[in-house]
């Protein structure tokens, strides 16, 4: 199992690359950066498929490490209240992951020096690059399907939008987490004083920007008050909203060749 240590703003971040070239982040390192007291405080918030364990060789022998997947990293970032979380996400999505997917490793100056001086490293990275190119080829069909769905006419329920977004190989998200993500972006909010707890879209950040729309329900008779009432509006996601959400969730793999 290949483990690579990186540095984010002076803090160590270890990433384990599995046999398929997928990155798994050491949970304790991510927890420190995102302000969690312990790694367990972070991992208990994640879905089961977003976390796991890996055994790595160290100077002291084989060590068992709790890890989180790429999707788990995004979930942890969105749940963090630290301003640093946004900078960490940018570092992950714009620097580390693209380099791993292009080269099979994060090309730090030390890695580049090793490539120059060690033929075995060149062979290893070339093999990883070949595997990644094959993986990219297999991803083209799902990416094309995502584009077709995202460019369709009409709009989507939040549950439908989550399913469409999850067709991007870089994204794994469900209905509830998508609501939470849109709230963190300021697209939706829960109105104060409302008799029914519900979500509404922000006029400035979501409605006017054509990311979300409100679907009004039919009036109904309230048996308790004896009056006709309108139900809370239902939030729908537009194709433009889908594309913007995909970007904020770290979707759009560089190897696919284009942003969706």
TrEMBL record:
<dbReference type="Pfam" id="PF02498">
    <property type="entry name" value="Bro-N"/>
</dbReference>
<dbReference type="InterPro" id="IPR003497">
    <property type="entry name" value="BRO_N_domain"/>
</dbReference>
<dbReference type="InterPro" id="IPR005039">
    <property type="entry name" value="Ant_C"/>
</dbReference>
<feature type="domain" description="Bro-N">
    <location>
        <begin position="1"/>
        <end position="104"/>
    </location>
</feature>
<protein>
    <recommendedName>
        <fullName>Bro-N domain-containing protein</fullName>
    </recommendedName>
</protein>
<dbReference type="Pfam" id="PF03374">
    <property type="entry name" value="ANT"/>
</dbReference>
């Amino acid at each position: 199992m290949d483990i690579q240590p990186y540095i984010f703003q002076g803090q160590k971040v270890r990433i384990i690359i599995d046999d398929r070239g997928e990155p798994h982040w050491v949970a304790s390192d991510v927890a420190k950066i995102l302000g969690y007291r312990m790694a367990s405080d972070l991992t208990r918030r994640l879905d089961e498929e977003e976390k796991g364990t890996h055994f790595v060789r160290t100077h002291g022998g084989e060590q068992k490490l709790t890890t989180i997947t790429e999707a788990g990293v995004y979930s942890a970032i969105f749940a963090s209240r630290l301003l640093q979380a946004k900078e960490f996400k940018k570092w992950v999505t714009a620097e580390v992951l693209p380099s791993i997917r292009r080269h099979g490793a994060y090309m730090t100056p030390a890695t580049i020096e090793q490539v120059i001086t060690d033929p075995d490293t060149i062979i290893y990275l070339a093999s990883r690059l070949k595997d990644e190119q094959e993986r990219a080829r297999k991803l083209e069909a799902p990416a094309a399907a995502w584009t077709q769905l995202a460019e369709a006419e009409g709009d989507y329920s939040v549950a439908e939008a989550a399913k469409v977004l999850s067709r991007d190989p870089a994204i794994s998200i469900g209905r509830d987490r998508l609501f939470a993500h849109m709230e963190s972006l300021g697209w939706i909010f829960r109105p104060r004083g409302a008799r029914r707890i519900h979500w509404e879209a922000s006029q400035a950040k979501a409605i006017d920007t054509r990311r979300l729309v409100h679907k009004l329900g039919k009036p109904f008779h309230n048996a308790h008050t004896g009056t006709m009432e309108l139900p809370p509006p239902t939030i729908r996601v537009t194709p433009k909203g889908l594309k913007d959400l995909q970007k904020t969730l770290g979707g759009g793999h560089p190897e696919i060749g284009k942003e969706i």
